[in-house]
Design goal:
The protein is α+β, with helices and mostly antiparallel strands. The chain folds into three domains: about 55 residues; about 90 residues, no CATH class; about 140 residues, Aminopeptidase, CATH 3.40.630.30. The protein has seven helices and 17 strands. The two termini are about 35 Å apart. It holds the Pfam family Rv0428c_C. This is N-acetyltransferase.
Amino acid sequence: MVRRIVGTRNNRPLYSDALGELIEVSETDLTLATKNGPLRVPLDEIHRAKRVPPSRRPNAADVVALELASNETWPAPVQDRLGEWLLRAADGWTGRANSALPIGDPDRPLEAAIDAIERWYAERGQPPLINTPLPLAAPVGAALDARGWGARPLTLVQTAPLPAIASTIEVDLATTPTEGWLRVAGARKSGLPDAAVHILTAVPEVRFAHVYGQPGDLIAIGRGAVTADRRWLGLSLIEVVPEARRRGLAQQVIGALSSWAAELGVPRAFLQVEERNTAAVALYTRLGFTTHHAYLTRTPPPP
């Protein structure tokens, strides 16, 4: 943690704290990998700095394992490798399935690896995207900053023991999504190409939650996918139609999917949510979810 001087008021210094992983020190400044991306701090602005105990954050192996579990439960139809890095494409449907995941060794210098990513996506007619788990991929983020890359809003990867939620409504769980389920999901995600159906269904143990209102209209959906080792339930597409919100339906969907996973012996769940989606973050907090780590989806500079 670094406490820096950011100004003065009434002849007294004003301070701001920054928490992150130290990734570079030069003669003039230092660089931290923070949850919002790399932060460069001039040395003459630093008031004090201290080491935060590692137990306050997940280790690199835990971040890698959860990122791979996420990839397993949201499988892009086209996947390739750049050393240990993953390259994924799915007709542009969702950033997660259409981005490189830079974890491990790309088997070449960092700048050459980024060049290879740009070529791989150009060959498929897609813009290159790179997901950078923080602070694990901070060096990648710093290299992208130098190239002028931007970033989408910060995404939180949250985990919790499976929530035990008393059922107050009927939630139908199916092994395949109905046409109504796909319509609701498509409305949220701007359509459903063939690649989307692959992502949703190409997991051996998956359930699609349906909640019906009157007169039989679908009013809430959700998806739960279990990893092959049965260590994780990945929750996604928890969606309630606008006219049925604020009735606790999302919580009921999560409860039904969690009960199904618990019967398989799965101990924990994870989900991904944008930090700026405060309503969803508040719901997940009430259900016991905490942020394991975060990532930025990095976007290329304008042509």
